[in-house]
Amino acid sequence: MTLYDYLYYILLPVLSVAMILLFVRFLLGPSIADRVIALDLLITTSIGIIAIYSIITNQPTFLDIAMILALIAFLGTVAFSYYLEKRNKNE
Hints:
By secondary structure, the chain is an all-alpha fold. The protein is built from three helices and no strands.
C-alpha cells in the first residue's frame, strides 16, 4: 500500500465521516459553546483535507492556505472565549 492509497482509501473517508458528524453537532448543539467548538473542529478537519489534497497534487501552496485558515480558526476561538469571560463577569 502506497502513501497515496492510504490517503485516498483511509484518511479521506475518515475525515469525511468526521466532517458529517461535526456538522450535525454544529446544527444540533444545545449551547453556543458546543457550536463554536464544532465549528473549530470543522475548520481543523478541513485543514487536514487541504493538507491531503496538497500532498496528492504536489502543490505546497495549498499549505499556505491551510496555515491562514488555522490562524483564523485560532483567533476566532480566542475571541469567543474572551467574549464568554466578559459576559460571565457582567452577570
